[in-house]
Design brief:
- This protein is rod-shaped.
- Helix 5 packs parallel to helix 9 and helix 7 packs antiparallel against helix 8.
- With 281 residues, the protein is an alpha+beta fold.
- Strand 4 and strand 5 form a beta hairpin.
Length: 281
Amino acid sequence: MNGRNADWAEQAVRQASNLSARYALKQHVIDLMAPDISHLLLQLEGKSLRFHDKQITLRLLPAKIRILHPVWKDKLLEAISHPDLAYFLFLLGVAGLAFEFSHPGFVLPGITGLLALILASFAFMILPVNLAGLLLLVLGISLMITEVLLGTFGVLGIAGVLSFFMGSLFLYRPSPGLPGSATHPALALVVALTVLVSGLFLGVLRMALKARFRPVISGKKTLIGERCMALEEFQKKGRVKLHSEIWWANSPVLVKEGQEVVIEEISGLTLIVRPLSEEGK
């Protein structure tokens, strides 16, 4: 309609193509260039263009220029959408949720992780995220967690670390529109977070799960199933010897002196026992 380069406009939509200002002017993508707003208004004054099948002549002068500065919310959203920060927030969210699942009840890591994931999701909607890179990140974390749970002698762990590293490098599609013309998070940040995340999942999480599912080695519950010896004949209440200690014990059946008994339950400081021969029947 206005004689601009329609072929490039199609490339911009389909392939996210970009041009420098001078090249855009040369390719008839833009009408003019101006160093500032005042010169822009001077060049636009009296310019004719077609709008809704009508010929319009622009009359802009005198014009009152009013500059609107971004408020704190806009600045915050702009900061969150920085590629490095979005990448860090995503990993912080995953780490926070993983810590909460492995240590239930802390609450704060889970809330922090959920909030970080929400902020990262907002940033990913703005940034040119590469789906393959994001899937490699998720695959890498999944493989490291599987290594912790199954213990495959490091095979899945190594594959997870490599997948995570490659996913970090391919997380964003190349685009000059990214802050600082970045096409991926800073390499130093990628290496540092790869080491930290792999250490978290393959080290800290492994130790946490082992500690959680480790059998009880202290307290009254460890005495259940232990064997001890009756020091006297009794049926209701009598004394037994357990690990060089003398305990009171109750038995529903007759226990003879010197007979071996097994502990079935503990009530306060009294052992509930049954003769070993009776227990085996």
